[in-house]
Write a structure and sequence with these properties.
Helices cover 32% and strands 27% of the residues. The protein has ten helices and 15 strands.
């Protein structure tokens, strides 16, 4: 049985608790949150922009902490799951790694490029197992679409487009998510999902050109980017300036030589494939979401003593790097070479 200490009990922390309640090979032994009231969990209903499995969970016997150092000192777990606000990610990951624990950290790996590299260096130095919650690499709709693309059945990708649109995320503790100095605003917090997916599909582009909605504190709440490659073009757009009644949606669109693949989470089926000269069909998808499969994968890696490598510290740091190239493009009003 793999033992985990969960840090942060907001939307994502409760989402992870819901996953752990369904995994038979993991036990939550410790909880940490700076807010004592957050530790008194009555249900897993979390709010947030993605519908997750709520409900009740038995946490009797689980140790609760409001001091991170005390939890690290007491121990009793194999890895730490960090679901804290972004500006804590690097600091808390490094402390856990230094203390000898494996770490699963929510995305992004860190708030900026320098901190990302510091975490990466610490992972390499300690040899601890480490991964980041770049969940789209595990989300069934994206996974099955990538399998079809990689099979070569419909030829190469000529154009790809990704999008995620959200109402204001008003569930965040202390409204930290709207403070660009603590979250990186939507350009980093939300948009990084599609940035990471683009890197997983195509690697680094030669250059990017971005535009965006810049808020008073300099943070970017909506961003649109074109990514330039030798043999294809990709584009993405994401942010959280939609009206309150909109909610949330994510989409992807691949134009291949022999087919078009569309993902739209507001539709049923979510994934449709339109082959050239043939009838459109839908892709069958396994149950569950990316949160479930990424944590299942990490726990399996702890058991084996090695991770799958689907998301690494390096890949997570690369996603932050590309996000900041896009942010520079917005603020400098020009194309940025990578």
């Amino acid at each position: 049985m793999v033992r985990v200490a969960l840090c942060g009990l907001g939307f994502m922390g409760k989402t992870h608790l819901g996953v752990y309640s369904r995994l038979k090979n993991v036990e939550v032994t410790s909880l940490y949150d700076i807010n004592p009231e957050a530790l008194d969990i009555k249900s897993l209903d979390a709010g947030g922009n993605i519908e997750t499995s709520g409900g009740a969970i038995d946490l009797s016997g689980v140790k609760r902490y409001t001091e991170y150092s005390a939890m690290l000192k007491y121990g009793g777990f194999d890895y730490i799951d960090i679901c804290l606000p972004t500006y804590f990610h690097a600091e808390y990951s490094i402390q856990a790694l230094d203390t000898g624990y494996h770490v699963f950290c929510e995305k992004p790996i860190a708030l900026d490029e320098k901190s990302s590299e510091e975490v990466l260096e610490k992972v390499e130095k300690t040899g601890r197992l480490f991964s980041v919650g770049q969940c789209l690499r595990f989300w069934p709709a994206y996974v099955e679409s990538k399998k079809l693309i990689d099979s070569g059945q419909y030829g190469k990708v000529r154009y790809a487009e990704f999008a995620r649109f959200s109402s204001h995320p008003d569930w965040a503790w202390d409204n930290w998510i709207f403070d660009s100095s603590r979250s990186g605003q939507a350009a980093l917090d939300l948009h990084i999902h599609d940035v990471d997916l683009i890197l997983s599909h195509f690697g680094f582009p030669q250059s990017v050109r971005s535009s965006g909605v810049v808020e008073d504190d300099g943070g970017i709440s909506q961003i649109s980017t074109v990514y330039f490659y030798d043999n294809l073009t990709a584009a993405s757009s994401g942010g959280w300036i939609c009206s309150s009644s909109f909610g949330f949606n994510m989409r992807a669109f691949y134009i291949l030589e022999g087919a078009t693949i569309e993902l739209d989470f507001s539709k049923d089926p979510v994934v449709s494939v339109s082959p050239e000269g043939k009838e459109k069909y839908s892709l069958g998808l396994p149950d569950g979401d990316g949160y479930y499969y990424e944590l299942k994968d990490f726990v399996a890696g702890i058991e084996k003593g090695r991770l799958s490598g689907i998301v690494t510290a390096r890949s997570a740091a690369d996603s932050v790097k590309l996000c900041y190239a896009e942010i520079r493009s917005v603020k400098e009003g020009k194309e940025i070479e990578i």
